[in-house]
Amino acid sequence: MTALVGLWLVATEVLRRPVATSDPYPHLCGVTHHGTRSGTPYRYSGRDCAACHHQLTGGPKTSAAPTAPKMRTIGDT
Known about the structure:
There is one protein chain. With 77 residues, the protein is an alpha+beta fold. It has a domain at 25-61. The protein has helices at residues 9-15, 50-57, and strands at residues 32-34, 41-43. Strands 1-2 form a two-stranded antiparallel sheet. It starts with 8 loop residues before the first helix and ends in a 20-residue tail after the last helix. The relative contact order is 0.19.
């Protein structure tokens, strides 16, 4: 079992289960979700799905853990 680094917030809400950032991108295509404030149903298509996009473009199948930003001073170029 992998350690929970972070959560994909939208995927966690839509799929109604914790989706760790260390896991492969989850497929949201074809899932209907009701807006939390408006209650309006929205059906995710392939263009909304990060997993579909990465499969089509040949991108990485998993996401990298977030890294800390580089510290720079004003004089750095």
